[in-house]
Design brief:
The protein is of the alpha+beta class. The protein has a single domain (16-53, 81-374), classed as phage-related protein like fold (Alpha-Beta Complex). Helices cover 20% and strands 25% of the residues. The chain is built from eight helices and 16 strands. The strands form five sheets. A six-stranded mixed beta sheet has the order 5-16-13-6-10-9. A four-stranded mixed beta sheet has the order 1-14-15-4. A two-stranded antiparallel sheet has the order 2-3. A hairpin with a 6-residue loop joins β7 (241-242) and β8. The longest helix has 22 residues, at 113-134.
Length: 376
């Protein structure tokens, strides 16, 4: 259980206070990074929204303009524009309370179990939304056959492998081929069991070449990936031997690497939060909710997961702690069709039941400003 900063008012309230505060901390902004850093813009007016992205032309070479020459043909600035869109998705969480507990609370320290349940349901809605954003396999699915629509995850909207190939081949929830994330930033196959400095230099360079300016990126890293990043600073261990002839230490001049860390005899530095490169900074933040959302509890693909309600019901979130998302917080936005709210369902004599739900859409302003990592 996490440590809390609030002292309970009475001994018999200790467990419930800690339990509730732990739930809040699990879904505070630092723990749902992509959701929390995304902007909220105007109200969603339709189940699908479309916007344009543009690929600007590169600079000219040694082209001079002679005096008195005609201007020539004007540039068609719309020729490289491509549409991007996403669908909205509904999120829900049900809760209820027995007819006796509703009138005579039986939980020490909880005077209103119904209010407690409602607050918990809202926190779970935020968690569910974060899982959908960080999914590595969720694509845009139109509502049909009662299975519910899905919005494309962040990866689906930027991945060059998922892009459509021409303006006439537009597909919802996909990046266009001329404005997708740079392949160098999508290190899904280039990483092995250990993260390297070279990998992050490749990512930073690819993003700089696309953005054409230095930016401060964020990396929402799964917990294993997060640890691998810190482990890049582990000191090299070498064996120093003394020769019999000189009785002096003998060591190869390139065998020892010295690391400067903010440490003293009482503090051990064991975390790397910012990766500084020649091409920009990458701030590392851990996330518990990156993974897959359209697989079974065993982690295998589900047949007809996006076309049959019975198959969709088998989908389970599977954590992938070796994955990571690179994003620019100013580049992500949410549109809400229905903000989170709660309504009471019909009563059957067993007690009061409620349904908390919301309907929203994820958007990416520029689908070329981002990346994705997989640590195998």
């Amino acid at each position: 259980m996490l440590t809390t900063d609030v002292t309970p008012a009475a001994a018999n309230r200790n467990i419930t206070h800690e339990d509730f505060l732990d739930q809040i901390r699990r879904v505070e902004p630092a723990d749902t990074p992509v959701y929390s850093f995304s902007k909220t813009i105007v109200k969603l007016k339709a189940t699908e929204r479309k916007w344009n992205v543009d690929l600007f032309p590169g600079p000219k070479g040694a082209v001079g303009r002679a005096d008195g020459t005609d201007a020539g043909t004007g540039r068609n600035w719309s020729s490289n524009m491509r549409p991007v869109s996403n669908l909205a998705q509904g999120f829900d969480e049900q809760f209820g309370i027995g007819w006796i507990a509703d009138s005579v609370p039986q939980i020490a320290g909880v005077s209103d179990p119904l209010a407690y349940s409602k607050a918990s349901a809202y926190m779970l809605l935020k968690q569910h939304t974060e899982v959908a954003i960080e999914s590595s396999d969720q694509v845009a699915v139109v509502e049909s056959a009662g299975i519910g629509s899905l919005f494309a995850s962040y990866k689906s909207m930027i991945d060059p492998a998922n892009a459509y190939t021409a303006a006439t081949a537009f597909a919802t929830g996909k990046a266009p081929d001329n404005c997708s994330a740079p392949s160098g930033a999508m290190l899904t196959g280039a990483m092995t069991s250990v993260v390297t400095r070279a990998a992050f230099k490749t990512i930073a360079l690819a993003l700089r070449q696309t953005a054409k300016r230095e930016k401060r990126w964020m990396l929402a890293a799964g917990l294993s990936l997060r640890q691998q990043i810190t482990d890049m600073t582990l000191p090299a261990q070498v064996t120093v031997t003394a020769t019999a002839a000189t009785a002096q230490a003998s060591i190869a001049p390139t065998a020892l690497t010295v690391y400067t860390r903010a440490e003293d005899d009482a503090t051990l530095g064991a975390s790397i939060d910012i990766i500084v490169t020649d091409w920009g900074q990458i701030r590392v933040i851990p996330t518990d909710y990156i993974g897959t959302t359209t697989t079974s509890a065993a982690g295998t693909a589900i047949t007809n997961v996006n076309s049959a309600a019975s198959a969709r019901a088998l989908s389970t979130w599977i954590t992938k702690p070796k994955y990571g998302l690179i994003f620019d917080p100013e580049n992500l936005f949410f549109q809400w069709g229905v903000p989170f709210f709660t309504e009471e369902l019909g009563r059957t004599g067993s007690g009061r039941t409620f349904d908390s739900k919301g309907y929203c859409m994820l958007g990416v302003s520029n689908t070329s400003l981002g990346g994705y990592l997989t640590l195998t």
